[in-house]
Amino acid sequence: MSVNDFRYVGKNVLRPDGPDKVRGRYGYLADDPCFGALEGAVLFSSRPNAVVKSLNAARALEMPGVQVLTFKDAPEGKYNSGEWFPGQNDHADERVLTGHARHIGDRLALVLAEDRGTALAARELIEVEYEDRPAVVDLSEAEEKSGLLHEDGCGAFAGRLEYGEVDAAFAAAAIVAEDVVTTQKIHHAAMEPHAVLAVPRPEGLVEIHTPCQIMFGVQHAVAQVLPLPLSKIKVLKARMGGTFGGKQEVVLEPLCAWAAWKLKRPVFICLDREETMLATRTRAATISRVRSALDAEGRLLARHFEVVADAGAYLSGTKKVMMAMGKKASRLYRLPALRYEGRAVRTSTTPAGACRGYGSPQVHAATEIHTDLLCRRYGLDPVEFRRKNLVEPLDRDPSGASDLGNARVRECLELGLQAFDWKARQAPSASGRFRRGAGFACCTHGNGYYGTIYHDMAGMSLRLLEDGSAILRSGAHELGNAALAALAQIVGEVIGFDPARVTVLEGDTLFNGYDIGCQASRGIFVMGECARLCAEKARAYLLAEAEKLGLKSGLQDGSLSTGEAVRLIEMKNSTAVEVFFQHRPQLNPASYGVHFAEVKVDTLTGLVRVEKYLAVHDVGLAINPSFVKGQIYGGVQMGLGLALTEELAFDAQGRPSARNFDKYHLVNAPDMPEVEVILVERGEEGGPFGAKSIGEVATVPVAPAVVNAVNRALATELTDLPLTPARIVRALN
Amino acid sequence: MTILIPAALDELAAMMKETPAFSLLAGGTDYMVADGRRSGGVRPAVIDLSGLAELRGLKLVGGEMVVGAMETMSTLAADDELRRRAACLSEAASKVGSWQIRNRATLGGNLANSSPAADTPPALAALKAEARLLSPRGERRVPVENIPVGPNRAAIEGDEVIVSFHIPLPAGRVTAFSKIGSRSQVSIARLNLAVSVIMDQGQAVEARVFMGTLGRAALRCPEAEAVLRAQGLEAEAPLAAALAEAAAGAIPGRSTLSYKQSAAGALAQDVLALLRERAKADGGLK
Lengths: 733, 286
Description:
By secondary structure, chain A is an alpha+beta fold. Chain A has 20 helices and 25 strands. In chain A, 58% of the residues are buried.
């Protein structure tokens, strides 16, 4: 079946939230005030590592209506913000409020008042006396100094993956190459800062409105701090102004729910930019030592990784991120043997966690920069290296994870080489103040959790209405990527309804079928397929019920409208055309991308201008090409920041280099290159109409492609991201 | 907080006399962001200068160009006359912040705030501009180069307001400004440079060179000026060396120094290229 056979799939159907969003009229949580809610202002630590000796709120409490909850009031129970299912046993080391501040921005107290101004003013009046301890920032010392930060006796959280004869491969190798690549902490920079509303309801129920990615994970986290069964915790996914992983882990939800529960009042907490930057989550900084063993023909025999990931003040999901890095190593190149040794360590800096790509950008930065450098050192052609080593369609993953599926990375590479005119561009311009160079990088990312230690499933219900419209009750979370609009397109295609007549509802933990959340790039492959199968089930039910009334042929030849059939079925058969479907994916193929960049580097200022950019992606099939391209454009913008400009650094005293966008620089529109996109649509079994993921993988190869271009332009071996102007100038002098 | 909006200069003078502690609000692009977090916190009164017609205007008066202190960066960047007669100021104004910021930010505010990274003070100083300051005690004219004295410190009294800038228009002058930030636009300067030279029969007979971001908003670089007078507009390497030397003198030991020295080389090349082009167009350079 080709795209031309579809009515809605593969077409640039408009998203229903688009017009309001571009006009600034789309209301987010902070735009919809809750009647009677207390405004909560979190008192954040100004110290990177200090025990609170005293916290005097007397003057704050003199202000009208002010209440203050401190770490002394807070439940002792600890949780892990990245744990999204009971029994995952992620190390719990965080409380809703703490008397031991472990980073600048740690939560000490919550000030509540009838209005935001009073809450903020009262917060200023709280006096905190700290007993400072040394900051722990250097990753090489973090394990040994962990006792300064945490009393749990855990120095580092180690993980390991291994298969094949690694030592023998290195012993027999013709070439052994090694590089150390570091990546930095990144602020997600979603337009909307973190916000949450918790409302205590009658009959012992608490309702939490949050722009989250895993509502059942929020429910689980809140159950760690409140004495409530999961069935009394109603989490509603609020309209969201961006996340990029920043809102995947719980940050404010347990605190807000606890405060609302304790005070029997609705509580609303909304951070500002500085607070979102310092007190929520970041991309995990990493140090990756990569060693490759190659035979004389340049074929990979083995790779050995030693990775340290900076969890920040709390472990959060960082061990999972670190392990996710290792799991990518055997899915891009045919790798006969792998040893991956990783450690997550804690430092007195802003906690890390999920961030678009979940370790993929970090590990691919390491391997793809390393690959180019080793090719240069040993006189290998980087294109030939890929041709020799990239995976083939239907390859298995030797680590034992799910098969790769219709892996079309080679096609991405060849199409890209041609479209980018790599042959003509690969040689750098030799001299002068401005140098030009080109680079590329390959990458892979997943499509859900099937074949990992985590379960993957989605449940949805669909009701066809009497006027030829439909409601899909999904556990989906619209993150800004038009996921709901894509689900409407899928349902519309199966049922034959215009997607504009299909309303897709977001998550509600007390109402929806269970779903594990919008994470792990499972949105289109798992939830999209669930929507398709749910719609097929509804269609089958419709036809079966219509047959009882002798209406089936009318439906099939178009003489009877679906809406009219639904109306007659309800009246005469006393049944709504409404089904529930639970999808259990049995596949988790890989998505691929190959990006090409040409840069111009000013050797005096160190400024890098990306002048030409091409992104080639193996997406199976684009449900909506304009959505897919939108994800790629945004992914490139984010990846350029990782490569060149964005950095949330901490000095030896644990002080952040940036607290706002004056010192934290995203690549903006005038500096964005034109991004050319080529989509490889060869279909993927198990995805809706052959579709697979794009949102995360789109940002994965950007940084190594750009770094490889800069290294080629300057004949440098830069491996510490980002390549700031100062770093480039230093490397040249 | 009290907000006062004078409609005329005498009304402003009276308000400044009667109000014990106030901030003057020009475009607000620094004030609103600082939000009282600067030392001293928020003062109880704000005097908003936006209603004062006397602080507006861009006109030629007696051989000088007079620019009202409340003129915005957008207006300055779009003014053809200014671009012709004082290109460096036009360029500096066009490179401040974003469109939105340029629509609000004013020339007077940029100098009064005196951020070391401010873009227009070096341009005004290179142009030998004077600021006309008014207070209840009378008025005075001060060379702009004497006003920035340190990071966010301007030699302007608390009861003084900048009314206008007076830019002399000598024959044969060509000027240029350039800056380096983290991005091509919407960027705070890591280094900026304004240069004005008076050309006479192909020779630079007078030169004024000011760099920003080196501890104050406009740092004069006499050695760089000497290079231009002695070696003219081709002297890229000597100018770069003189600027690097000036940076070392201004911020010795600062971690950013070596980067700024390299960047000064880029600015020297860029500004000299602009100056040569303009001198040629003026017929001042063969």
